[in-house]
Task: structure prediction
Amino acid sequence: GRTDAGVHALGQVASATVVNTLDERTLARALNAVLPADVRVLAVEEAAPDFHARFGARAKTYEYRIVNAPITSVFLRRYVWHVPQPLDFEAIKTAAGPLVGTHDFAGFQGTGTYQTSTVRTIQALDVEDGGGFDLPFVIRITGDGFLRHMVRNIVGTLVEVGAGRWDPWRLLAVLESLDRTQAGRTAPAQGLFLTSVLY
Result:
């Protein structure tokens, strides 16, 4: 699999062909001994010869974390988007609703990219309220695939709605327009986490 630069991965999956005599646990320990400190192998499993970590994925779940408080913890700043102005969570939840389902997400695709199809299916999009400077609220999104910057562009647009700058139905209008310029800013990479991949 792959993510944008600066995005975190708690559930990234990689596939490789390896010829050795080590069992899975020993191989995981050996890999962790030589990897940089910010990359860890959590498990190694034998897979079918035709398994491909990226192309075999049926769904992925991302979480975007936002601290909505006047200040944020210095320990979280590399892992959240700090939005100090108050946000309306009910408006954000209302705005997120129409995105669930199969749609053409061209309006939320990163600029300067090309895909043969921009149709994707979002299976779930949930918003969990946070509670202050050290407890972010989470936007969790599960889909069969995502366009470049798609999750970050959706989150940036939801924040515009939550801040009261746009109507909650703006996201539906962006969907229908297929026009990236109608959506909000791209949310910063550091708040985004790939949390799981389903095969």
The longest strand covers residues 119-128. The chain has four helices and seven strands. The CA atoms of residues 26 and 44 lie 9 Å apart.
